[in-house]
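hey m, so remember when u said the tokens were messed up on ur end? i reran from scratch. heres the input so u can diff it against urs
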Amino acid sequence: MSVNLEGSKGKKDKKPRHRSPNYPSVTLKRAVELTAALHKEDKTHHVPIATAHSRMGYSAHSSAAMQAEAALKAFGLLEVDGKGKSRKVAVSSDGDHIVREGPRKEGLLKNAALRPKLHRELWNKYASTGLPSDEVIKNYLVWERDGGTFTDDAATDLIKNFRETIGFTKLSPSDKIEDQEDEEFSAEQEENGDEGHEGSSGQNARKLRQRISRGGTMSEKQEEVFNVPEGGEIVLQFPSSLTPDTFQDFQDWLKIAIRKIGRRVSDSGQEEQQ
């Protein structure tokens, strides 16, 4: 048996490439422009991912297209249904409100600016005393950050996009931003169908729970039940007090949920006929 020592040494000495944590590849302003391109053609309807990439001006399934898709989703402007190349996407209720210049646009943009985990992290770290120089932020990202460090180029890109996004929304420390759980999203997870990635319906339900919780505690919940003739029941639980904004958010979410349920019922009926 022969052993290629030179080849083995080459593999052993090869250093793994340092990969920076995921962050939006485009600014929020650019993300809104891409959302508007999707909305112009299909409003809030789900479309195949290849079509969505084309609507945004990218080649289907290209790296740039998937990065832009991931950024829109990180900002909360896009919903993703399914996995891999068969997935479909739709402009979210927040994205729809922003694109159509709704009365809550300003607040939704400020919330969107801090939805990406790293944007929120930098804002929470520096906003109260004012953003420091790029050099100070880069030193933190490259050398000090506990949750994973950045390469120089990635840190520079993140800082640039972050500053432009904050400037675009005119976000200030006095602004009240929605409580948001950490959301990390990568284009590779969506493209490869990563089992660990939470689906868009799960994220919508979690966002709904967050918004409803601000209107009342679940100990004060009320309940509406729809008995399904085929068996089972549909249960809707909600707090006794909801703000008008929260109720509007719920209505928007409910329309999307009904469309999704309708598609699943339709698909199930077709399978039974076959």
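this time it looks ok to me. The beta strands are 47-48, 78-81, 88-91, 221-227, 233-239. if urs says something different then somethings off w ur setup not the seq
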